[in-house]
Amino acid sequence: MFQTKKRSHAALAAGLLAAGAITLLGGAPATAVNTASECVDTHAGEHSAARGLPGVKGHDRNEISDAQAEAMNADLRKKVMEANQRGAVSALAAGGTINVVFHAVSTTSGTGKMTDATIAKQIKVLNDGFAGAESSVAAKTGFTFVLQQTKRYTNDKWFNKGADDAAIEREMKTQTRVGTAATLNVWSVDIDGLGFATFPNWYAGEPKLDGVVIDYSSVPGGSATNFNLGKTLTHETGHWMGLWHTFQGECTKKNDEVADTPAQSGPTSGCPEGQDTCPASGVDPIHNYMDYSYDSCYNQFTPGQNTRMQNAWTAYRSGK
Ligand SMILES: [Zn+2]
Question: Which among 165, 167, 162, 164 is positioned nearest to 185, based on CA atoms?
């Protein structure tokens, strides 16, 4: 099957979901975003938790406004301050063990079927990324992912629309999700792109929708050319742990709220070594898991991203 997966923004199909996503934003007021604003300009300081959604730019279901981003950050800062007062942040700064439930969805004709060996490889890729095993400058986050359970479903509707239709996504996740805010649920389906994640601060409002959806073709050995080393799951789990894209905020000083990921004007395609798209110092962080580069180009989270993940973990997931 010919694959044209790439890490750009969502296809039109996700326009439907953009409306659904509004209700998922937890603390952010629903009026702060509308479908129109999500569709107009993805380069206007908006945000995305989706990776590799091809097609029309601006329909990324997770794009949020600057106001919503600031609301999310304000909430994170408040919760971190409260946790600091309780002494909880330092206790968790070394990471933790995260149980993973892998939901492998396939069709009646067998598309999407996944072996235990493939799932094990996928979990190893995830662990390598969070362990900083791919680069000497990568953060060693201390988070370890342990496969707790693999669940398999034969369901054409879920496979084909489980990530691209809000009602079907809700049905699939509600019927299958396992665990708490600290449990990473991964669904593999045929997503219109490569992946999609919920942010940690959404959990309180929509606990049953919490988790990561990846395209079945993105797993190690899958059919998504340039994106089949399994690092879509690393990227999406970064979102699930509270990270934004490295191109968030584009060339602004605030950028992605992480000081050691230099600003970049937009998502990267391929692996253009030395690319530098913003006047601020530092070349674009094309090797960062939170850019849109090829899997082969990805090799790191930064220490600053690690701090943000630790904080979000403490604020929204650990023990929740
Ligand atoms: Zn993303």
Answer: 162
